[in-house]
Design goal:
single chain, mainly alpha
Length: 308
Amino acid sequence: MEDKGRRWVLVTAIAPIAWGSTYFVTRHLLPPDTALWGAVIRCLPAGLLVLLVTRRLPRGAWWWRSIVLGTLTVGGLNVLVYVAAQRLATSLAATIMSTSAAALLLLSWMMLRQRPTLRAAGGAVLGIVGVIVMLQPGGGDADGWGIAASVVAMLSSSLGFVLTRRWGADVPPLTMTAWQLIAGSLVVAPVAIVVEGAPPALDGPALLGFAYIILVATAVAYAAWFTGLARLPGAVVGVIGLLNPVTGVLLGVVVAHEPFGPAQLLGLVLVVVGVLAGIRPAGPAGPDGPAPAPAARPLVRGERRRRA
């Protein structure tokens, strides 16, 4: 991969590292049982900050597209991640989300006509087996609602990212970040008022946690991720996404002293190996995407006359 490709890889890596830390921050610093307001407080200020930089509002179809994408990748996603982070060990929640690389392969096949190779399908299966191993007895806190929230969050974000690639080729990454963050927040805000009432009171640790999540794990992270989606092949972005569970596991074990036994280790290894094998390019395409299309055949004299 060329130097420019490495630079975009490093930029994209900011997102999964920051998102992996979100589980720890949410579980240990933010108020519990406020998943809806947690998503609004996290995403709306971040979206407004980015909008101040881009100063560009949606036009035409992008009004409803922003709502759809914002619900999938921001509003609904962050509510579910909040629930998962409060109910699951950091390492387990982050590892379940790592299967999004396999989901991206399958959804890209269904929606973008990018048929996965046999190696890709096998890697996806191996990654799912790794998650199952993580959920075996002794694999940590396996709360049923937390697991369901993580799985739905993974599918929601994967669908939203595939649609972003399909619809947003002409939209700059920062602009896409602002539109989706604000739209997703506005979708969740009325539900938060009805279901949870007034916004939660925030103490010092919660204010510090939200400050980090708003600036780093949301504004910067989403901008970095959408930049990667625009600049790198989807397979490369999927590999970079594995830094999410790695960060979650390291923080959970080192800082929070969460359990990490043979089941977690084996499951994590299977997920990492499976996704790496599944998104490894086959043939001469290389890590930077498919081989370029052959050059067009020059027109002969008769064809030039007909074209004229």
